[in-house]
Amino acid sequence: MKNLTQENVLEALRVVKDPDLFKDIVSLKFVKNISINGNDLSLDIELTTPACPVREELKAESEKAIRTNINVEKVEINMTSNVTSRQFATRPQILTGVRNTIAVASGKGGVGKSTVAVNLAIALKKEGASVGIVDCDIYGPSIPLMFDIKDKPHMHNQKLVPLEKYGIKVMSIGFLVDPMQAVIWRGPMASGAVKQFLTDVDWGELDYLIFDFPPGTGDIQLTIVQQIPLTGAVIVTTPQEISLADARKGLMMFNKVNVPILGIIENMSYYTCSHCGERENIFDFGGGKRAATEMNVPFLGEIPIDTKLRIGSDKGLPLVEAEPNSRQSLIISQIAKNLAAQVSIKNAESLNASTISISLDSIKSN
Ligand code: ADP
Q: Would you say 184 and 214 are in contact if contact means Cβ atoms under 8 Å apart?
């Protein structure tokens, strides 16, 4: 058994590995504020997201590593977080207070993209993240309904202030124009409106800003993708082949403009009969996972068909807000954590890539 010193604590913690970032928590500089008082120890482990899927495991492993190696009485480990950002080749001049921007897209409409986007946003908020959502679905803005917001955003210092509900900052074209009017907009008007959401809205500081994309992979979607400095994109699909074919097109669109794919979410995966409990694969089975394997992108999880999810969207009280501990909500919360982990992974990769390119530059200039 070693003595309780800062060096020995760090040494002991080197066995604790972050399974997503493939490094130990000391090398990752997660261990902070080590404080020793006699035989008592307290320290912080600062993760890259409050929605870390292995938060409790890392805490337990760290305590075990300390107790098996060091002579210590009391061990207090505080799990904190400091959300990371993607390193872009040139630093974006817009959304400067927003750490991560996530596109939630689908190859076709009606697969539950907005429902998933809204519930993911609330799940991330419940884990302790600051979150906003932008309704880019110019032709069918459903976010005002899903949040039951009837107010209009006001201006402050010549910027639009997003409306806030359930702790989420919300902006939608539906707040500003009659949805029937937006339907007849031409491409440039639609993408111009989204651009304004990036430049003329005061988002403040946010960990995650989610963009609910218009369904499909046409020119409008591509123009919007090119306007937003995106951390990555999530594709929502249903399991059947007709939806998967379009999901693949969605993946290809983001690939074409070098937006990292954070993963595929399969919605309406199956239905469990509330009377007999039997599972029915209404739209086929396992298609989302197959597509993810085939395209070599992460599979974030499957969400069953559930009347409560539909009712939540219709009532403007999303299920994860209304019943955070329901089976459905726990499934969505796990998917939100998987998503947050992928964001951290992509951010770490972008940091490594930029460090490599900086050192290559310095070799060239020597
Ligand atoms: P999209 O954004 O892809 O067009 P929506 O999110 O508007 O799709 O969802 C379409 C309809 O399906 C809505 O009525 C919504 O409440 C419902 N819905 C979405 N996901 C589910 C689900 N897992 N279970 C039950 N109903 C769902």
A: no
Task: Indicate the SS3 state at residue 27.
Answer: coil
Please enumerate, as own/partner, the contacts of 187-192 that have beta carbons within 8 Å and a separation of 24 or more.
187/219, 187/220, 187/223, 190/138, 190/139, 190/214, 190/220, 190/224, 191/220, 191/223, 191/224, 191/227
Q: Give the pTM.
A: 0.92
Whose Cα sits closest to atom 15 in ligand 1?
A: 310
- 155 is written with which tokens? 């201006």
Query: Distance between CA 291 and CA 310 in Å, rounded?
Result: 25
Average pLDDT over residues 35-48: 97
Which residue's C-alpha comes closest to atom 19 of ligand 1?
Answer: 112
Does position 2 have pLDDT exceeding 80, yes or no? yes
* 15 CB neighbour count, 10 Å cutoff: 15
- Phi (first) and psi of residue 286, to 5 degrees: 75, 10
- Chain segment 272-293, per-residue pLDDT in tens: 888 888 888 877 778 889 989 9
Q: What is d(CA 211, CA 105) in angstroms, rounded to the nearest whole number?
A: 8
Collapsing DSSP to helix, strand or coil, 180 comes out as helix
Q: Which residues contact 340 (CB under 8 A, 6 or more apart)?
A: 49, 50, 51, 52, 53, 124, 127, 129, 208
The residues lining ligand 1, judged by C-beta closer than 6 Å to any ligand atom, are 106, 109-115, 142, 215, 267-268, 303, 305-306, 309-310, 313
Cβ proximity of 175 and 157 under 8 Å: no
Give the residue, 284 or 70, on which the prediction is more confident.
70
List the domains of the chain with CATH numbers.
6-81 (3.30.300.130), 98-335 (3.40.50.300)
**CA nearest neighbour of 272 among 222, 308, 320:** 308
